């Protein structure tokens, strides 16, 4: 196969259908960027889950004078109640570790966690957060057993399970992921249609050349290759633009989520590079396959 002839035919096809080629490149870039963003969000969710689920704790807040729970009767939990609660917790097979956190320690941890929002910290005073037992579980899925054992006990105000909070957060991220993938799917369909129209138009404009090539005995692969490579090149250019958009999405979306939501771990650049390569390859294959299928149907050779 003459490489120079194939390259010349590719250039002619891209130049004749310049506006449609530009539209195809833009559509592929948007589709692959959204597809890659969905993969990045998914990787962020999985990374955060594996990081934080090992650190999930059940917080058992004790009664205080400010408690709204009628069972507390506006009184602090007694030392005897605290010792009994701790002893019962340590007996549970699901519990790995039990730590007591005083009001002062809770206030200090609160200030450190929300140091980026000073207005929120200033509106809270020491003593507003009651003392508690922070329970580390051997299996985060067994939180219900611990919660049921501690609820309605003397001295216990409420039981907070961090897994429920994290699950709600991960559902939000999962929704963002599926939204990006659905929009990407719509863009992929648009890209396939554009590839088909571009190839059909290019084949129509060069029907005389392809007819001559067929008469002189050129193989189907030799005739089809310029059209397929046109779509692949457009997909490659679109994928490269998508790579730039993915880098921006890491800075503007993924890193921002990781910094503002304090229970999200940072996503490494290795994952971004892998997702970028997958997106570029997917864009090239998508356009090449769409070109091939369109030629089989509309180019009679």
Helix content: 55-70%
| Termini gap | 17 Å
> What spatial form do the alpha-carbon principal axes imply?
rod-shaped
Main sheet strand line-up: 2-3-1-4
Strand residue percentage: 5-15%
Low-confidence stretches: none
* Rg (C-alpha, Å): 30 Å
Count of extended strands: 4
Structural class: alpha+beta
Report the average pLDDT across residues.
76
Q: Describe the biggest sheet? A: 4 strands, antiparallel
Reading the helices and strands in chain order gives: HHEHEHHEHEHHHH
Number of helices: 10
Question: What report would you give on this structure?
Answer:
By secondary structure, the chain is of the alpha+beta class. Helix content is 70%, strand content 8%. The protein has ten helices and four strands; from the N terminus they run H-H-E-H-E-H-H-E-H-E-H-H-H-H. The chain has helices spanning 3-16, 18-52, 79-91, 103-113, 118-122, 143-150, 162-205, 207-215, 220-260, 269-298, and strands at 57-62, 95-101, 132-137, 156-161. Strands 2-3-1-4 form a four-stranded antiparallel beta sheet. Helix 7 (162-205) runs parallel beside helix 10 (269-298). The longest helix is centred in the middle third of the chain and has 44 residues, at 162-205. It is rod-shaped, with a radius of gyration of 30 Å.
């Amino acid at each position: 196969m003459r490489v120079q002839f194939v390259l010349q035919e590719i250039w002619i096809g891209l130049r004749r259908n310049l506006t449609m080629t530009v539209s195809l490149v833009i559509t592929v870039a948007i589709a692959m960027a959204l597809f890659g963003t969905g993969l990045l969000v998914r990787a962020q969710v999985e990374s955060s889950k594996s990081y934080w689920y090992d650190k999930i704790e059940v917080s058992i807040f004790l009664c205080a004078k400010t408690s709204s729970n009628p069972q507390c009767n506006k009184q602090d939990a007694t030392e005897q109640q605290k010792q009994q609660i701790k002893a019962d917790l340590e007996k549970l097979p699901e519990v790995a570790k039990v730590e007591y956190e005083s009001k002062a320690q809770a206030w200090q941890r609160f200030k450190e966690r929300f140091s980026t929002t000073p207005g929120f910290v200033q509106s809270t005073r020491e003593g507003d957060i009651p003392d508690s037992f922070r329970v580390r579980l051997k299996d985060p899925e067994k939180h219900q057993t611990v919660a049921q054992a501690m609820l309605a006990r003397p001295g216990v105000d409420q039981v907070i399970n961090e897994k429920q909070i994290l699950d709600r957060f991960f559902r939000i991220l999962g929704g963002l992921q599926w939204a990006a993938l659905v929009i990407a799917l719509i863009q992929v369909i648009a890209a396939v249609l554009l590839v088909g129209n571009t190839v059909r138009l290019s084949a129509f404009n060069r029907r005389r050349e392809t007819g001559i090539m067929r008469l002189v005995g050129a193989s189907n692969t030799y005739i089809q290759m310029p059209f397929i490579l046109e779509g692949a090149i457009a997909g490659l250019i679109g994928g490269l633009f998508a790579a730039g958009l993915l880098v921006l999405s890491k800075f503007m979306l993924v890193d921002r989520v990781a910094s503002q939501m304090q229970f999200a771990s940072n996503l490494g650049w290795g994952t971004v590079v892998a997702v970028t390569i997958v997106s570029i390859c997917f864009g090239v294959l998508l356009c090449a396959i769409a070109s091939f299928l369109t030629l089989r149907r509309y180019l009679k050779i």
